[in-house]
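Researcher: Structure for this, please.
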Amino acid sequence: MRVGYGAADPTGKDGVAANLDPSWLVGDPPWRSLFDAWLADAIAAGVVEPNAMIVGTVDADGRPATRTVLCKGVSDAGIVFFTGYDSDKGRAIAAHPYASATFPWIAMERQIHVRGRVVKVDPAETQAYWNSRPRGSQLSATTSDQSRPIASRDALEAAAAAVSDEFGGPLSSTTVPVPEQWGGYRIEPDVVEFWQGRADRLHNRARAIRDGDSWRVERLQP
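Model: Predicted structure, token format:
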């Protein structure tokens, strides 16, 4: 299977797409403004789950794993997602607190790759996000012993029903507290790369790299 690139980028004028250039990476940090612009473009274009990203970690035995999670926060400090701290990814991060994340906007012929140190977000940030979640999502997170085996779907649904009853049911106003082993992580970028598809696989790649207290930007060969 082979698909040509070079036609989908919405930044173009008169039907000719502009070539991604390192000069587009400006500000402090230099990746932030273009990240925000590309995310906004993905939302406007109707990309399904535009904040979905593939997060890669390495466990204590040096074995890599990837999975798709939802980005739930972007700031100059980095990219935030939420999960169980005792999940597979949580245990991997505890062993090696460094991760990668890829936003694969393939329909737009764009990708963004982020790599950096991972830290837990402040509990207040976790609480604020938890409060914004639908009650059903709160109950499911409270139910799940994430990444652990369970006998069957029936057993999972029974556990969920028991947790729901404990807090008065799905329509109750009883507060569901944040589970002790659940919260947010922030990837603090050392490297942010922007990828733009082009004809004949002569793609555009530009990246920002943290260099001490400053950043440098550069073009990469495809």
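Researcher: Any notable elements?
Model: The radius of gyration is 20 Å. Helices lie at 32-44, 88-95, 123-132, 135-143, 153-166.
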